[in-house]
Design a protein that fits this description.
Largest sheet of chain B: 4 strands, antiparallel
Protein name (chain B): Secreted protein
Organism (chain B): Paractinoplanes ovalisporus
Keywords (chain A): Signal
CATH architecture of chain B: Sandwich
Keywords (chain B): Signal
Structural class of chain B: mainly beta
Radius of gyration of chain B: 24 Å
Helix content of chain B: 10-25%
Number of strands of chain A: 7
Strand order of the largest sheet of chain B: 4-3-6-7
CATH class of chain B: Mainly Beta
Strand order of the largest sheet of chain A: 4-3-6-7-1-2-5
Strand content of chain A: over 45%
Oligomer: heterodimer
Distance between the termini of chain B: 85 Å
Chain lengths: 138, 138
């Protein structure tokens, strides 16, 4: 009888521990490595390549923004948003940032890059911001 | 005592069951693709005529949103047009008249970039896929 009571107690404890453990949302790990940026179509856009690693099964949204003050003082900027499914391993992605219609075309040279990757599965989320200067190549 | 055992068993079953239920997967609509065949300048650059081919599963519906972006000196020319069509399962051609955004410049002949966002829907689900490609305005 005591054994049965002990077994019942263990099962109950396991059950409550399992239920209690589920909402303890640990932050998921994700990383972004910026690779390079190439000017395309006479500066109408820039292809930004980056590597992203995020937990398998997560649905991620990646926003890539590029801002540049040109040598002539005009401003070129643009943003692109991509959706991807995380593979659990590093994957190479490319976002084509088209220039804003109210701005100028991109030039080769220094620009400011901002990438924000966010993603969630059923229980957990991650957010990885990257802000850095980048050299736009021809 | 039997009640305790039964309660413990029920809790254990609930926990185990909740761990085994997988999140619902999005139903795929099937393979689809698009390609821009040609882009012609019209109305002194106020418009470009985009000839586009698409392929999607028979019975599905496709929505195409095409954005053309080009540099014109130190300004940007850009325009967007969307169109809906029924899928036949074979390649089909369509034509989109893309008028320029009046905030930007006129389209000129030369290199440009186009982003085609296709949304393919069947009776149960939709799938949205963006595609960037280099084009030439003739």
């Amino acid at each position: 009888m005591r054994r049965r009571i002990a077994l019942a107690s263990v099962l109950s404890a396991f059950a409550f521990a399992s239920i209690g453990a589920a909402p303890a949302y640990a932050a998921a790990d994700a990383t972004i490595d910026v690779m390079w940026a190439f000017r395309v179509a006479r500066g109408a856009a820039v292809d930004v390549s980056y590597g992203i690693t995020c937990p398998a099964g997560y649905q991620a949204t990646v926003t890539v923004s590029l801002d540049q003050v040109r040598k002539d003082g005009l401003r070129a900027s643009g943003t692109v948003t991509e959706q991807l499914t995380c593979a659990g391993t590093g994957v190479l992605e490319m976002g084509r940032v088209t220039a804003s219609v109210t701005g100028a075309p991109f030039q080769a040279g220094k620009a400011t890059l901002a990438i924000l990757a966010t993603g969630c599965d059923d229980q957990d989320c991650f957010a990885v911001p990257v802000n850095q200067d980048i050299h736009v190549q021809n | 005592m039997r009640r305790i055992l039964a309660f413990s068993g029920l809790l254990a079953a609930l926990v185990t069951g909740s761990l085994l239920i997988a999140p619902a997967a999005n139903a795929a609509t099937g393979p689809s693709s698009t390609r821009i065949d040609s882009v012609d300048r019209r109305q002194q650059g106020d418009r470009v005529l985009v000839n586009l081919s698409y392929n999607c599963p028979a019975g599905a519906r496709i929505q195409l949103v095409v954005t053309v972006t080009a540099a014109n000196g130190d300004r940007i020319a850009q325009g967007t047009r969307q169109k809906r069509a029924d899928c036949t399962g074979d390649w089909a051609a369509t034509e989109l008249r893309v008028d320029r955004d009046l905030a930007g410049a006129l389209f000129i002949v030369g290199q440009a970039t186009a982003r085609t966002v296709r949304t393919v829907c069947d009776d149960t689900s939709c799938e949205t896929i963006p595609f960037d490609e280099a084009i030439r305005i003739s």
